[in-house]
Amino acid sequence: MSASPPSDESSPSLRVLHIGKYFPPFRGGMETYLRDLMRAMTDVQVISSALVHDHRRSFRSRASTLTTARSELTILRAARWINLSFAPISPGFPLLFLRMLRQEKPDILHFHLPNASTFWALIIPKARRLPWVVHWHSDVPETVFASHWWLRPLALPYRALERALLRRAARIIATSPPYLRSSPFLAAFRGKCRVIPLGLPSPAPTHTCAGNKTASRGPDEPLRLLAVGRLSYYKGFSVLLEALSQAPDVELQLVGDGERRDELQALASELSIDSRVRFRGSISDEELEAAWAWCDCLCLPSIERSEAFGIVLLEAMSRGKACIVSDIHGSGMGWVVEEGVTGLVVESRNAQALSEGLQALNSDRAALDRMGRAGQRKFQDQLDIARSARQVKTLYQDVTAHAG
C-alpha cells in the first residue's frame, strides 16, 4: 500500500524511502527517531516510507501504516528469521526492497546505520540510480567482531561493504560534532558529512515537569533517580549500583530489561541497596510517564562509545529533568548534557565520581532545578524533532539539487 498524499492542498516535493533496522513498538533510540522523523517530515512537505526488519521472529513479512495528521505512511517489516550477532537476517529483504522502490517511487534513499541490510542497495540497479543519504547513528566497533571466533572472518567483508556504501552516499549525517570527529570510519568522508542532532517531539504540557518540584521537596527526602535503557554491559548500570551504595540518600528506579538483569539484581542485593533500587523491567508508556513524574533527575552511566548520543537524555530534558552522564571520549552524551548547565558529566567507570555527583545534586536541589530548566530550554531551542526535520529537509534539497 502506497502512502496517501497530504490532506492539505499542497503536495509534497519529495518522497523518501528509509531503510532502517527495526521500528516501534521495538524500543530503541534509532527506531524512535525514525518514527518521529517520518511524522515530522510531513509538516515540511516530505512523504516518507520505511523498510525495516520485524523485531519479532517471523517467516512472513507484514505491512502497516504510520498515521499522521497529513498522511498514511507505509511501513514494511521484512520477516526476520534469526539474528547474526547485531545483524537481523531477512532472506526476503532484497525482493522487498525492490517492491518498495517500485511502489513508493522515492526521490531519495535514506539509510540508517548500523544495519547490514542496507548493503543490498549496492547491487540493486534501481537503488543505485537514486541519491543516497546515510544516517550514521553509531560505529560498529572492532570489539563486536572480536567477541566471537565465528564473527572475526566477517570483519573484512563488512568493512568493505560499509566503505562502499559511504563512498556512494551523497551526504552522511552524524548526530553530534564529537562523534563525527572521533569516528575512524567517517574520517575519509568528512567532506560530505553534516551534523544534525537527533530530536524528539515536545511532550504534552501535562507531561512537562519544568520546576520539577525538586527544590520544594524536603532536604531530608532522598534524591529520586531514574535510569532507562537495555540492561546490557555497555550501559554501565553496575557502576551506577556501586555508586548508589556510596550515596545512601538516593533512590533508583531502573527501567528496562536485558541479559544482565539477574546479575544486576544480585549485585544490588550484595551491596545491600536492594531496598532503594526498584527494577521495573519493560513497562508501558503510561508507567514510564509516571516514572518521569516521580524522578528528580536521570542518570545515563554508559561506559563505552557505543552510547553514541543517548536519546533518553532528550526525553529527560524535554520534561525539565537534569541529567548526569559519563564522560566518554567521542560520545555525544557530553555534548547533549553541558557540565554544570544542564547536568553533570562525570568520569566513566568511576563509581566514586558518580556517587559524588549524585550527592552534589542531592545537596543543592535549587541547582538541580535550574539545570532541569536549562535542559528544557536547550531541548526547545536545539533538539526538538521539528528542528531536526527542517535540517534534514534542507539536506535533501541540497542532495537533489546536485543529483545527476
From TrEMBL:
Residues 28-199 form the Glycosyltransferase subfamily 4-like N-terminal domain. Signal peptide: none annotated. GO terms for molecular function: glycosyltransferase activity. Keywords: Glycosyltransferase, Transferase. InterPro entries: Glyco_trans_1, Glyco_trans_4-like_N, Glycosyltransferase_grp1. Residues 219-377 form the Glycosyl transferase family domain. It comes from the Bacteria. Pfam families: Glyco_trans_4_4, Glycos_transf_1. This is Rhamnosyl/mannosyltransferase.
